[in-house]
């Protein structure tokens, strides 16, 4: 059985603004969460193309997280453990997932749509009646949902934060119904771990970590708005490349990279094709949501099925 949840994450932004804010947030968040070899290693970041969704950006990352998992999970996995995340960003529509060769029965898939509203779209993913019956909707409040004490920073508490450049904030109770502008990320997460005795526990753990990551990352995206609101797409891509190199260097210091990857770590952007070929998980590239259209012209882009529900298996957090 696949556990399906749709997280609705509102932000006091427009969809167009969030396009820049999301790129900045993911790059900075990944960098700040990477320490002592844990965190996110960037394998590839390159353009892709889909016949339905058009031009996009493909990324492949390795998420090293051995020491961040509960002890009962660590007992089941190798000491050096990572999950490979592959994502196709056809903004305002994205597909991402995290396959894991160490745990082949682990399945996680994320499909996201972004809309200029406060979470009122009933079925933006066009799910079937059967899928709607299985879907649970979870409204994520970036201001009032709790985060762990170790991640709390007073300057990032958006209940009190006010942007100097936009004047937005603080976010008071009920802000999603009163703030303008407002947009929503509709993040459909499907997870499955078909191992008897562990299925329910692991699936619940996946959604627990997914939710915590979304609350923290999105509140930071707003708290950091003065750092990115005036950036162009080219400028945020330059920042992204810089953060990727620094983040990879942190992972490399822990000795978790192969000699081949070490030779690429100084510039993952220019060597992305070679990095993809080097990846042991290249066979896990997800089939993208589809139509009966031809295969995308980009070899790294997923092939599109008629609806998100027809997409093949696999895992993500973007």
Automatic annotation (TrEMBL):
InterPro entries reported for this sequence: PI_transfer, PI_transfer_N, START-like_dom_sf
Name this polypeptide is given: Cytoplasmic phosphatidylinositol transfer protein 1
Domain Phosphatidylinositol transfer protein N-terminal: 3-244
Cited Pfam families: IP_trans
GO cellular component, one term: cytoplasm
Bias (Low complexity): 286-318
Organism: Megalurothrips usitatus
The family this protein is said to belong to: Belongs to the PtdIns transfer protein family. PI transfer class IIB subfamily.
UniProt keyword annotations, A-Z: Lipid transport, Lipid-binding, Transport
Domain of life: Eukaryota
Entries under PANTHER family matching the protein: CYTOPLASMIC PHOSPHATIDYLINOSITOL TRANSFER PROTEIN 1, PHOSPHATIDYLINOSITOL TRANSFER PROTEIN
Gene3D superfamilies to which the protein is assigned, alphabetical: 3.30.530.20
């Amino acid at each position: 059985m696949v556990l399906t949840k749709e997280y609705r994450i509102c932000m006091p932004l427009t969809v167009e603004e969030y396009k820049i804010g999301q790129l900045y947030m993911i790059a900075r968040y990944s960098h700040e969460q990477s320490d002592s070899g844990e965190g996110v290693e960037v394998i590839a970041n390159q353009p892709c193309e889909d016949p339905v969704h058009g031009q996009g950006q493909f990324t492949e990352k390795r998420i090293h997280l051995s020491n961040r998992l509960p002890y009962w999970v660590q007992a089941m996995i190798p000491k050096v453990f990572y999950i490979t995340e592959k994502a196709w960003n056809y903004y305002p529509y994205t597909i991402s997932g995290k396959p894991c060769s160490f745990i082949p029965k682990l399945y996680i898939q994320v499909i996201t749509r972004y809309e200029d509203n406060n979470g009122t779209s009933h079925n933006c993913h066009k799910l079937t009646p059967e899928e709607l019956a299985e879907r649970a909707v979870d409204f994520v409040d970036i201001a009032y949902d709790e985060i762990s004490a170790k991640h709390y920073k007073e300057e990032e508490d958006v209940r009190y934060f006010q942007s100097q450049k936009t004047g937005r904030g603080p976010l008071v109770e009920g802000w999603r119904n009163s703030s303008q502008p407002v947009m929503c990320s509709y993040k459909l997460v499907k997870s499955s771990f078909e191992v008897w005795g562990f299925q329910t526990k692991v699936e619940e753990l996946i959604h627990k970590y997914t939710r915590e990551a979304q609350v923290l990352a999105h509140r930071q995206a707003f708290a950091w708005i003065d750092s990115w609101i005036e950036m162009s797409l080219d400028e945020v891509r330059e920042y992204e490349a810089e953060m990727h190199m620094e983040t990879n260097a942190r992972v490399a210091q822990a000795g978790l990279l192969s000699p081949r990857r070490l030779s690429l770590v100084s510039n993952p952007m220019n060597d992305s094709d070679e990095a993809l070929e080097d990846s042991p998980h290249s066979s896990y590239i997800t089939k993208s949501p589809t139509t009966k259209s031809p295969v995308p012209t980009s070899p790294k882009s997923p092939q599109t099925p008629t609806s998100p529900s027809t997409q093949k298996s696999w895992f993500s957090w973007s």
